[in-house]
Design a protein that fits this description.
By secondary structure, the chain is an all-alpha fold. The protein has helices at residues 14-38, 65-70, 115-127, 141-153, 164-170. The protein has a domain at 115-170: PGBD-like superfamily/PGBD (Muramoyl-pentapeptide Carboxypeptidase, domain 1, Orthogonal Bundle), CATH 1.10.101.10. The protein contains 5 helices and no strands. The relative contact order is 0.07.
């Protein structure tokens, strides 16, 4: 099958032309028959619109224009529509204070350093897992051993890294001191 073949440009044969003429005539014949059968076989006459005649009183009943104007019934004025609405409420004062976002608890592990490590070491010293004076802000082997001991004593997986579970328990009142 060739997709890049040019379109066929040969002229239509006489048979093709005759077939098209017959199909078009059949379509017109079908339309004519549907119109005729739709009207009960009666050919339609020209459509003439009938003008709307205003209802006038019989002649001789009104003598002058003034009498006709007196007989006109005026249109009643529109009645106002009263819609019940709720009384307005006072607009609340906007609160421009930032909503605090939850802080991610970092995982402290070997070679971590900084204030978070020092804070954790201070708490480990309070609970007796780390010796006094070892809170230097550097997460070394001594801090890792203290974290493992805390995790074991408190029923956590003792991996020596202070993740969210370990730090949450460490700073809570439920933290068990070193036995």
């Amino acid at each position: 099958m060739q997709y890049n073949r040019p379109p066929d440009r040969r002229p239509m044969s006489a048979g093709n032309k005759l077939l098209i003429v017959i199909v078009v005539l059949l379509i017109f014949l079908a339309g004519f028959l549907s119109i005729m059968l739709g009207r009960g076989g009666q050919p339609a006459g020209p459509i003439v619109p009938t003008p709307a005649q205003p209802s006038l009183p019989p002649q001789g009943q009104l003598n002058t224009i003034d009498e006709a104007l007196d007989n006109i019934t005026p249109t009643p004025p529109p009645t106002p529509v009263v819609m019940a609405t709720a009384p307005p409420t006072e607009t609340p004062v906007p609160n421009f204070e930032m909503t605090p976002s939850p802080t991610d608890i970092p995982t402290l592990k070997i070679n971590s350093s900084g204030d978070e490590v020092r804070r954790m070491q201070d708490r480990l010293v309070q609970l007796g897992y780390l010796r006094d004076g070892a809170n230097d802000g550097q997460f070394g082997k001594g801090t890792q051993n203290a974290v493992r001991a805390f995790q074991s004593a408190n029923g956590l997986g003792a991996d020596g890294a202070a993740g969210p579970k370990t730090l949450t328990l460490l700073y809570s009142d439920d933290a068990k001191p070193k036995p």
